[in-house]
Amino acid sequence: MAKEKGKLFGGRLDPKNTYAMKWVARFVAIGVVAGLGSILFHFLCEVGMRYFMDALAGWRPPSPAGETHSMFKPGVKEPIRWILLLLPAAGGIFSGWLVYTFAPEAEGHGTDAAIDAYHNKGGFARGRVPIIKTLASAITLTTGGSGGREGPIAQIGAGFGSFLATKLKLSDRERRIMLAAGMGAGVGSIFRAPLAGALFAAEVLYRDPDIESEVILPAGLASVVAYCIFCLAFGWGALFQTPVNFVFRDPLELLPYTILALVVAGAGWVYVKTFYGVTGLFHRLSLPNHIKPAIGGLCTGIIGFFLPQTLAFGYGYAQWAISGDPRATISFLLLLAFGKILTTSFSIGSGGSGGVFGPSVVIGGALGGAIGMVFQQLGWVDAPGAFVIVGMAGFFTGVSNTPISTIIFVSEMTSSYGLLLPSLLVCTVSYLVSRKWTIYQMQPKNPIASPAHAGDFFVDILQSLKVKDLKDLIINVPGIPEQMNFSDFKKFFASTKQHYFPVLDERKRLTGIFSSTDVRSVLFEKHLEPLVIMQDIAISDIITVTLEDDLNSVLKKFTIKNIDAVPVVDEEDPGILLGMLRRREVIAFYNQRVEAIKKTKTPD
Asked: What is the pTM of this model?
């Protein structure tokens, strides 16, 4: 027993366990930094809301029921509207100066930047980006700019993951995983949805319903740690609270939910087109980049002058709709939704800093609430608040192509797991309708289209193809009789472009092979010609393939002796020659197959 204890405690650890412990420690460290980053960003947002929106503009927008504030008490009072008009422009000046002076790649919504780093930069992100992104986003959002908190916090977690991997001199693949884990941890903590954060980090990387499976568990571990740290500071529980336990019990409501799916999908198209239309407009402006966010902020302020509810975060208005607050009327919610599309487009599309998931939650919730109340007035539904929650999921699915993680996100954010079935329906319909557009433009269509996976599929594709797929490319060549003398072969050789010559016995069975190179030793020795038969030149150790061999093994056989063609024989009787297969035909067929796959797997 003492000896066993020595093995466990006094002896050396299993190298596999040591390796696993190192990776666990790395992802825990990423989770710790992401959680602390979430706390810092939340605190900066509180400070900004207290001194900019509250003290300066007299505006206290409501907050979701699960969010606590230590510096000011959210509520609704009449704001000083002319300050609301100018405040986003002032925030744009400062955030624009920060971003374009120190880290231009921090402009826009940070999740797209993390996706770009994953696919195109080997998971590398400059260390200063998360810092600049945090400060610029806090300024943009707390001076009235419309955006979400997930963008900056995603870059904080992703940036630290990339930094840590670089310092440890890990591979590009390992750096990408750590970057994605940090992104998931940041998003999962700030929205108190750790499972959804992990799934989001794996799913948001592609437009197709592909999931980067190697990211899920690392992101899950980091997200749990970050979530716990954030909640220790700001309390446990879901971000939104529901007054009743929403449960789906009436199949007849599937029709209103289907209509909701089509509405949010259409609104998602408007959101994406407006967002990138505004972004393109500002890119074309012949003005210094530093002042473009100020112009975008001024446009945001003009909208906010008339619709203050469209400024800053807006989560509290989604809470109104969930709770059935009488102030959340149909007209109020519709103005909130479409006003939020405009203010988000101007705030972020002009070069300001913030996320796009947060506004999507508000827009989708507002549209869902309005649709739910319409159907309630028609007597079709009893709980319009359920439509708010499902609308959140359906709208973001339509603009991000992330149906699975979004369903979990909204369920965790609202603790409404009883709405999984209608959420699945709405997200599925919305996703299918919205396949051609996405708010995350850096998403490749799938792993095949990702530079991060260039070469990963070479062997996979070759192994999926067999020689029988190239049956039409197998060349039917005449066999050379074993007893043919060299003089007769010389006459045949002069009239053919063939380079490899299979040798057959009197029963027409394959016994050997030789190449044009093998005959050179005899070709210039005329006195040997009458004495040599082709059996003497042929090699009996033949490398052959069958119709059932995959192209990966065929290419390996080509490289064993650096040959350019190989005999194809019957699988059950290797003596039966079916023809010759050339290396160039195999490579050309592979290239054609890859091009065909790219045409179906890459964006239009």
From this structure: 0.76
